Amino acid sequence: MKITEHIKQAKGKTLFSFEIIPPQKGRNIQELYNNIDPLMEFKPPFIDVTTSREEYVYIDKEGLLDRKITRMRPGTVGICAAIKHKYNVDTVPHVLCGGFTKEETEYLLVDCHYLGIENVMALRGDAMKHEQYFKATKGGHSYASELVEQIQNLNSGKYLHDVINVEDKADFCIGVAGYPEKHLEAPSLQTDLKRLKQKVDAGADYVVTQMFFENKKYFDFVEAARKIGITVPILPGIKPIAVKRHLQLLPQVFKIDLPEELIKEVEKCKDNKEVRQVGIEYCIEQSKELLAAGVPVLHYYSMGKSDNIKAVAEGIF
């Protein structure tokens, strides 16, 4: 079922969902199941599965370093199929511009269609670790709006090199990212909102926000989006602080601000066990306010761990 259909069928009730990351190559998928299992009691209608960019690794060959390109966390579509089969829940694979040609994207989407996966999250993706700025893959897309357009073309039966007349066309529900504190490369929030509208105009069906820690920023973002004609559902993305290092890491990586009250409480903590509890309690209060505001979905970034997300969900659902 499409995400938009899940929201419509909920009739105003706020749904619970979360995002996971694939295990590294060589790790057992059972580790992933062990983190999903505790969250299934909250009846998520869908689970997002991230896609990682390629990266360079250096292999020592007789004293010389040989640079090879690889993906440390492959298998997004396979994991989506496995989760869908095991838990009877809809899955949302993340589809990236970075690291994929248009042809590779088409093949991935065809696989999703064959597997009965009806939802995809269309993202530009980040720059590679050695790059200062994002560079489009040769033969790939530069912007998420272009990726959305390709997916919509496939929904219309229009493939890259042929228009194929078929009865069984794809009909993907397309999610895109929104940034309440603007994308790190955008010159202003207003400019970033215009880019979001381009993605929606290209065919995006819903928006999931980058994590934020002050609800006012989400509410202001939604209001500003509505003013420029973005009418699709906007789902808040939430993450509980888990370790003290997050005070530096999250603002650095995601270019977001943390509220002073949260910073002060984390700084008081003697160890990460106390930090985790502070993060859970803060996230519960944040979630309660969003729930009272009637958001369609509370979408949690689990980063591969579920114990704190479970603790938050127990306080909300």
UniProtKB/TrEMBL annotation:
Keywords: Amino-acid biosynthesis, FAD, Flavoprotein, Methionine biosynthesis, NAD, Oxidoreductase. One of its GO terms (molecular function) is FAD binding. Pathway: Amino-acid biosynthesis; L-methionine biosynthesis via de novo pathway; One-carbon metabolism; tetrahydrofolate interconversion. The keyword Flavoprotein applies. It comes from the Bacteria. SUPFAM superfamilies: FAD-linked oxidoreductase (SSF51730). GO terms for cellular component: cytosol. One of its GO terms (biological process) is methionine biosynthetic process. Its cofactor is FAD. It catalyses: (6S)-5-methyl-5,6,7,8-tetrahydrofolate + NAD(+) = (6R)-5,10-methylene-5,6,7,8-tetrahydrofolate + NADH + H(+). Its EC number is 1.5.1.54. It holds the Pfam family MTHFR. Belongs to the methylenetetrahydrofolate reductase family. This is Methylenetetrahydrofolate reductase. The gene is metF.
